[in-house]
Amino acid sequence: MLTVPAYAATSATEPLTPTTVERRDVGPHDVLIEIQYVGICHSDIHNVRSEWGPASYPVVPGHEVAGVVAEIGPEVTRYAVGDRVGVGCMVNSCRECAPCLRGEEQYCLEGNTLTYGSVDKDGTLTQGGYSTHIVVNDDFVVRIPEALPLDEAAPLLCAGITTYSPLRRWGAGPGKEVAVVGLGGVGHMAVKIAHALGAQVTVLSQSLKKKDDGLRLGADHYFATSAPATFEQLVGAFDLIVNTVSARVDLDSYLRLLKPGGVLISVGAPAESLSLDVLSLVMHGHICAGSLIGGIRETQEMLDFCGEHGIGAEVEIIPATKINEAFERVIASDVRYRFVIDTLTLV
Ligand code: NAP
Ligand code: ZN
Ligand code: ZN
To answer: In terms of residue numbers, what domain contains 219?
Structure first.
């Protein structure tokens, strides 16, 4: 057992504070990772504030983990000490159900083991990456390409795969018009990846404040959703719309922006349910879809794709003491475009 520094939430309303967590001894198939950087995802905030239902406190969040292998179990063959690796939202699954067998562990029928807030196989509560070390089964560890710095790679483990998976599944590529709603952590990765896949990309943001950034990240067009003209001008414009908004949005106003047969994919996960004009959906053959991260195989594929295209996240590196401030800035849509904690500052 290894006792390591971490940052934890002890209730839905208290700020996160320094603590320690126990990491299990390295088992035959385990990898001990010395974490160097961990991203702050809006899901961490939904989670620690019990917005998705009651969390089990204390919660050490963090599922955008990038680091270096410090120790391996005797049965581990794919990784060696010193390798650059990452861990995303899951650390285990049943491996036997239909989704697991087709590489979609995120939809495991038995319920996968999340990186934090899940009951692990040994009955303990998993604790995430706002910490200096983590022990993970090697099947849930991925390799970070040499071309990517670890700080810029960390957010790929959630924000990257969350956008790569549905963009690939729904055919983003040359000749396709893709809109991204919300230019935050997940949204900016959607822009970069959709652009690299060859699609024409439009950002739909609350204002034009981040327009220059959006165009630099790879968008071809940029509109403010606060301007009513946007929703008239863009009727029927898109093949795909990726909704990354962490709050309630009017889905119907976005569905009207789809071509016939177009797809609105929600990855943003607000706690409140959203309504839908089903008659309009029927009349235009629109598809309203959801998507949850991606499987482990696909996460490795995404990392290799990002390595080949030189795609990392735009990060603002912060010390652990700024975590609570960063949470507030994420909630205020004041993030450019992912906060990443330097875990050396936890020590
Ligand atoms: P984020 O960095 O806070 O980005 C969300 C963006 O949504 C903001 O930057 C803002 O963009 C826009 N937004 C926020 N509040 C809004 C409002 N009231 N109305 C309209 N637009 C608003 O968060 P994130 O880390 O990207 O995560 C986004 C959502 O995706 C969260 O709900 C998170 O839990 C979820 N998520 C889901 C998955 C999955 O697997 N499906 C994975 C990761 C995250 P503008 O300033 O450009 O308008
Ligand atoms: Zn996330
Ligand atoms: Zn399963």
So the answer is: 160-290
Q: How far apart are CA 88 and CA 65, in angstroms?
A: 6
- ω into 337 cis (within 30 of 0): yes
Give the CATH number for residue 259: 3.40.50.720
pTM, to two decimals: 0.98
Please, are residues 91 and 76 in contact by the beta-carbon 8 Å criterion?
no
Is residue 58 located within the same domain as residue 116? yes
User: Would you list the DSSP string of 164-187?
Assistant: HHHHHHTT-STT-EEEEE--SHHH
Q: Which two tokens stand for residue 187?
A: 């949204």
273, 249 contact by CB (below 8 A)? no
Same domain, 205 and 281: yes
Question: For a pocket test of ligand 1, which of 40, 42, 291 has the largest count of ligand atoms closer than 8 A to its C-beta?
Answer: 42
Give the model's pLDDT for residue 121. 86
What pLDDT does 42 receive?
A: 98
Reduced to 3 DSSP states, what percent helix, strand and coil does the chain have, rounded to the nearest 5?
A: 30, 30, 40
Helices (H) and strands (E) in the chain, counts: 11, 17
- Domain end among 250, 268, 290: 290
Mutation pick for ligand 1 pocket among 114, 223, 231, 246 (CB with most ligand atoms within 8 Å): 246
Helices (H), the chain: 42-48, 98-101, 150-153, 159-169, 185-196, 211-217, 228-233, 251-255, 278-284, 296-309, 323-331
- Cα distance between residue 188 and residue 315, in whole Å: 11
Ligand having the closest approach to the CA of 313: 1
Residues 303, 284 share a domain: no
10-residue block means of pLDDT along the chain (347 residues)?
97 98 97 98 98 96 98 98 98 98 98 96 94 98 98 98 98 98 98 98 98 98 97 98 96 97 97 92 97 98 98 98 98 96 96
Q: In whole angstroms, what is the distance from residue 184 CA to residue 207 CA?
A: 13
Kindly state whether residues 261 and 338 are assigned to the same domain: no
Based on the domain organization, do 52 and 135 belong to the same domain?
yes
Rg of the chain over Cα atoms, rounded to whole angstroms, equals: 20
Q: Which of 252, 270, 290 is the last residue of a domain?
A: 290
- Domain count of the fold of the chain: 2
